[in-house]
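ok so I'm stuck.
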Amino acid sequence: QVQLVESGGGLVQPGGSLRLSCAASGSIFSIDFMAWYRQTPGKQRELVAASTSGGNTYVDSVKGRFTISRDNAKNTVYLQMNMLTPEDTAVYYCYANAGRPSWGQGTHVTVSS
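replied:
not stuck anymore, here's the structure
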């Protein structure tokens, strides 16, 4: 199982930016599906952004604001989040599927004045 560790979360004002990082325990070159999910209390965990060999996909609410990227040399996946709104407040989780699903511990993002 791939071990994933997220970092970069924190408190930011509306309109601000954060970059989340997801460091994997090994090579991610061969992992076709890596993604960022988010979850708030009382809500189902939702897919925010995904990176596959076919390209990147995003949930409609973050299109144009969030960007997922990979650095295979660093075994790290990033989520650049711009123009943040209070609706983006959540715990963000990194996900990878390398034969079995792997989840990070999550990093908190709070968007508030």
